[in-house]
Specification:
Strand content: 5-15%
Structural class: alpha+beta
Distance between the termini: 74 Å
Helix content: 40-55%
Number of strands: 5
Largest sheet: 3 strands, antiparallel
Radius of gyration: 26 Å
Order of helices and strands: HHEEHHEHHEEH
Length: about 170
């Protein structure tokens, strides 16, 4: 196994990328020639790979700076897998308009009884679901986002009573 020696700048860039989920960003103050040199070295050493419109760390990139890569399921060709169906359902239910059974079925490919069972599992897991009717008479489900309760204000009389009781 070969060891890759990185400069302080290269290490800083790779560590910052690891904190951002692997996305490489070269500081703007870096000269263009230096940017090209850094990116060329990272690609030659297979520390990064091109993805759509950005570069991301590879397993070697994480290991080069002494970090474990985040666990992410991948397909056989090495591409990241799609989001899980549970994640898709939670995203749809988290929207302001929620999601109907039909929308959940088309997103997941599930049958109606499987979709309703998933909603029941979410309820039993403690996720508060709100059921409402839309203008087109379809039923929509939403996950209620509970906001933290505001602290109750005590009246001056109650504060004075509490202070008096504490003194005695």
């Amino acid at each position: 196994m070969t060891t890759i020696t990185l400069s302080k700048t290269e290490t800083t860039i790779l560590l910052a990328a690891a904190e951002r989920g692997g996305a490489i960003e070269i500081p703007e103050a870096t000269k263009p020639a230096t940017q090209q040199r850094l990116m060329g070295r990272f690609e030659r050493e297979k520390l990064i790979r091109a993805e759509e419109d950005r570069h991301v760390l590879t397993l070697l990139g994480y290991r080069a700076v002494g970090l474990r890569p985040p666990r992410q399921k991948r397909t056989e060709d090495g591409a990241p897998r799609k989001a899980s169906k549970r994640t898709m359902v939670l995203e749809l239910l988290g929207r302001a308009e929620g999601a109907s059974i039909a929308e959940l079925m088309s997103a997941t490919g599930w049958l109606p009884h499987t979709t309703r069972a998933a909603l029941s599992r979410l309820r039993s897991a403690g996720k508060p679901l709100l059921k409402s009717s839309r203008e087109d008479d379809t039923t929509a489900y939403r996950i209620l986002v509970e906001e933290p309760a505001a602290p109750k204000r005590r009246s001056r009389a109650k504060q004075a009573e509490g202070a008096e009781a504490a003194r005695t």
